[in-house]
Amino acid sequence: MSLGPYAPFIVTSYLAAALVAALLIGWIAIDYRNQKRRLRELEESGVVRRSGRSATEP
Amino acid sequence: MTLIDLANPTGFRSLTARLLPFLAAATTILLLVGLYLSACAPDDYQQGATVKIMFIHVPNAWLSMFVWAVMTTTALGTLVWRHPLADVAAKTAAPIGASFTFLALVTGSLWGRPMWGAYWEWDARLTSVLILLLMYLGLIALWRAVEDPSRAARAAAVLTLAGAINLPIIKFSVDWWNTLHQPASVLRIGGPTLDRAFLVPLLVMASGFTLLFVTLHVAAMRTEILRRRVRALQMMQAQGVSGEIGAAPRASQPA
User: Fold this and answer.
1) Can you give the residue ranges of every domain in chain A?
2) What ipTM was estimated for this complex?
3) Contact across the interface for B227 and A35, Cβ inside 8 Å
């Protein structure tokens, strides 16, 4: 596969898409882990849902 | 699981826990196949190899509008039915939609430089998509500025509905004005004008990016439900503390 004289433009486009997708995935994964940790900390400090169920369970 | 269970955030979380691995796997497979087909696609007789940028640019441009259309539907859910998941869906879709719009603009510029001789032109299509990006950023700022999620949801829903007017402007800008941007070549009356050699990789990549949006959106919604649960528990904790002290004012009821 030869990209010719415009290779830098083509490669940068694909790298930009990969970078943005990776950032989105990373941000969502880290955010999810943070929220789960905060819920666990709250439960451990004795705060529970009105239903009595664990807040971390689905 | 019935449809009613899906309306419940707890039921939704339980469903997504089972669904997400399959969505992630399907997205990965589709994007890998799309990348392979894009790499194997022949050069265009006019654009040369830069036609490969189209396999990234066009799906992102479509999704930039599709995500706003999804948010418009959820805005109706917030304002008319006050559905508990509607504003969760709208809030979590905005950053993903903004990312797709940003990518559409960046990849469009990278294609424009070798083909048009310029990274940017104040063309009707480019300008209306830039406005879309600014509207996404405005919505994200609004969600962050208002602390109460239900108040933020109503304000954001109104802004989303008003912003939906930009969608037909983007779509038909190439027909209404004399623009540098080429007219529609896939979603048009009379069928696509693209050759099969370009159409197939483009549609596979578009399906892959659409699945990527669905996967990321579902995952972000699951996180947002947790965030609201954290907020509710923190408010319960604050109420408990204020009740014990007996002097602090009561916090408002948790969401």
Assistant:
1) 17-42
2) 0.86
3) yes
